[in-house]
Amino acid sequence: MSKGGTKKPHRDNTQSIIKPTIRRRARRHPLPPPPTAILSLFFLSATSFDFDCLDLNGQSVDWFAAYKLPILSDRSKHRSGLDFLYADARQPESWQVSTKQINDSSSAIGKTMGQLWKAKNDQSIFYALYNDEHPGSNKSDSYRGHMKGVLLFDDFRGFWLIHSVPNYVDLSKSAYSYPSSGVRNGQSFLCVTFPVSALSQIGTQLLFSQPSVYDYRLPDSFKKLFPDLTKAIEKKSMSRAEASFSSIKSIKSLDGVNFMSFSKHKKYGKDLYGDLVAPELKSSFYVETWLNGPVDVDYAFSSSKDHSKWAVSDNGNLPYVCIGDINRQKSQMGRGGGTLCIQNFLLWHLYRSSVDHVECCPTSNIFHFPAFHNSVSTLRSNVGVSHFSCLILFFFGFFNLMIS
Question: Which domain of life is it from (predicted)?
Fold first, then answer.
């Protein structure tokens, strides 16, 4: 119990329920598990789908980040609201403009999600789709977490896709599609390939944040091994012993890259970034989330057209990029949500160089942005304590190439 009676966030001080079966990538013929793991992996089936995040060429990749552009001015080459920018573990230093649009099943995101359609009838796989704005519905689940994502795993590994798109993904359709509700605004994506053992930590994080799960398959074997995941998917409440209302966990990808996961329960009642992320990572952060208000522009897209949720540290010695699902809004302090952070200098530089300059919050809420500038909230941390909030303007240099 910290000062003022605030409970400390739940931390991962235990070992994974099962040991990872694979340390290196094995596509079709995984190595047999060591003898110590045989009993705990009793449920392994003969089928291995090798679910992975897939890159622009359809090849397996440890992780990728993507940003879908909003509908832009007629002067832009990429004005449709379906084009997206892409960076991954193999090329984190620069954005690539995908030649395939996001609604195309042959795009990186389309191919990654297409694995779900190929395997959805197999009873041995685990998948979960969650979104506070369900597909095929105009209603939002404001009671549960403000979060959106996809989990797809076989007995060896799978991927976790965190995104910001409403009404996505609709598995009731015959094939992959992208909703019209996700076209107008900018959207963010982070896909990470994990060993199946990571579902222990992921399940705990989801238990805290309380996602609105609208479609899933949870085989009995997964239920036995991942109790927190089961409770989260079945929308069970946390016990009083678990009720610290926030959780921080380190989760390793299939290739051993460390990701920091931050999760908060709706009863946490505070800002995810200012009260949990910045103090833990001991860094100032620029946070891009949903912001609305009047905007006076020359040629730009305003924050009212950006629904993405990402954060980047201000310190190159602590180069963190976080992509998540909750906004920095007072109304969302009472909602569950989270973010997943990676420490990678090249990716950090890619996001951090997007920040053009900082403006402390003016008295007026009307802003003027030069071409392709946008508003982003930032917080400063001094030994983990948030001091103030400001607005910054950011500029994506790659947009220069898109002006016809």
Answer: Eukaryota
